[in-house]
Write a structure and sequence with these properties.
The chain is mostly helical and 196 residues long. It is built from nine helices and no strands.
């Protein structure tokens, strides 16, 4: 969760907002959630872990849940399918990125906690579904555009191909079911096969 910019964000009157501090608070929120779950996700724990005063926290988020959901969404925003013109290689890179995210020391445990909480907490469910749908829509459209350029489009839809890779990545990291790079390449080649 390193900062990509050393320059603080400008926001009108007053001091500029320090993006590094915001990321530090978000990382602390994910860490607290991973260790204590939603029942232990408290403002006090986040502020102690991040070293940020409560007033600083409240200038950014109304609740610890809002903070942790922003943090979770920001890290998951890295799961973007990038079209470089080679769907085979692009899908391999995407699958590896998904594996990296599912294996992330904070994101992996937080994903399990958030999945469970989203079943009983409408606020968490709405945030998770909204962000996931936006990301899925972007990734599906980008992959579909790449597939449309192929001389022989695959039998499977872009959405199903992404679903399959997401399932494999999740199983590799959460269930520890190994997949070699050669197996991943073969799987992607199969997913990209044209109808027989």
């Amino acid at each position: 969760m390193d900062s990509t910019s050393e320059t603080p964000e400008r926001r009108g009157r007053g001091r500029p907002r320090d993006t590094r501090l915001q990321e530090k608070i978000e990382t602390a929120a994910l860490s607290v959630l991973a260790r204590h779950g939603f029942s232990g996700l408290t403002l006090e724990r986040i502020c102690v872990e991040s070293g940020a005063p409560k007033a600083t926290f409240y200038r950014r988020w109304p609740t610890p849940t809002a903070c942790v959901m922003d943090a979770y969404g920001r890290v998951w925003s890295e799961a973007e399918y990038k079209d470089t013109g080679d769907p085979q290689q692009d899908l391999e890179a995407f699958a590896h990125k998904l594996m990296q995210l599912y294996g992330h020391p904070l994101l992996g445990p937080c994903s399990l906690v958030i999945q469970s909480e989203s079943r009983v907490n409408p606020e968490v469910n709405a945030r998770v579904q909204s962000r996931a749908l936006q990301r899925r829509t972007r990734n599906t459209a980008t992959l579909q555009a790449a597939l449309d350029r192929l001389s022989r489009p695959p039998a499977l839809s872009a959405a199903l191909i992404l679903n399959a890779l997401n399932g494999v990545a999740r199983n590799v990291e959460t269930l520890r079911w190994p997949v070699s790079d050669d197996e991943l390449r073969l799987l992607i080649r199969s997913l990209l096969s044209a109808p027989s």
